[in-house]
């Protein structure tokens, strides 16, 4: 069991949707001055341009605990550490934040630009007219799907949805929605790798999406616009 060290400090930054130019200036400065920069390899690929002399320490879902323990040991030795997360910290980085909070008592949070903001901009919808639902949580997503179904039937807001790599992706979500009574003719847009050079978008019906066999990126996001 990890013991919280209240006198130790780490910084967590949201790196944005993927385009390195979308990293905030405050995040750039924190990364440039850090002795240790931690994150998933795909996230570190975004920020490595701003790493000066610090150590890049990649982690995976399997070794998060070990890597963060190493980061804590480095902080204990007087080093500065920045932990990097996709997008914005308040959108889908809760589990990572909780892992850091279990280790140190002093945490600085630097928000980032989220892919949901990018998706709204690309689609031409407003956040105040939209709902955001994430399935990223590593738990039973039944209640989240029920919430999605409720709001699709309600028809009062645009819906921006983050699927869960890789067991609850766009095609399976569409299949579940149709089984739950959402019309197969309902229009949906799927974005992949927003802000990257190879960004893609797909438009079609839930019925068409449900039978798609191509593999979607883990950086996918679905948008259900209000029917016109």
Name the CATH class of the largest domain. Answer: Alpha Beta
CATH structural architecture of the largest domain: 3-Layer(aba) Sandwich
Number of helices: 9
Determine the CATH topology of the largest domain: Cobalt-precorrin-4 Transmethylase, domain 1
Radius of gyration: 19 Å
Look at the structure and give the mean pLDDT.
95
Which structural class fits the helix and strand makeup? alpha/beta
Calculate the terminal CA-CA distance, rounded to whole Å.
53 Å
Order of helices and strands: EHEHEHEHHEHEHEHEEHE
Protein architecture, described:
The protein has 228 residues and is α/β, with parallel strands linked by helices. The chain has two domains: 109 residues, Tetrapyrrole methylase, N-terminal domain (Cobalt-precorrin-4 Transmethylase, domain 1), CATH 3.40.1010.10; 109 residues, 2-Layer Sandwich (Methyltransferase, Cobalt-precorrin-4 Transmethylase, Domain 2), CATH 3.30.950. The chain has nine helices and ten strands. The protein has a five-stranded parallel beta sheet, with helices on both faces. Helix 7 links the parallel strand 6 and strand 7. It is elongated.
Task: Give short descriptive properties of this protein.
228 residues, Methyltransferase, Cobalt-precorrin-4 Transmethylase, Domain 2, five-stranded parallel β-sheet, 10 strands, Cobalt-precorrin-4 Transmethylase, domain 1, alpha/beta, 34% helix, single chain
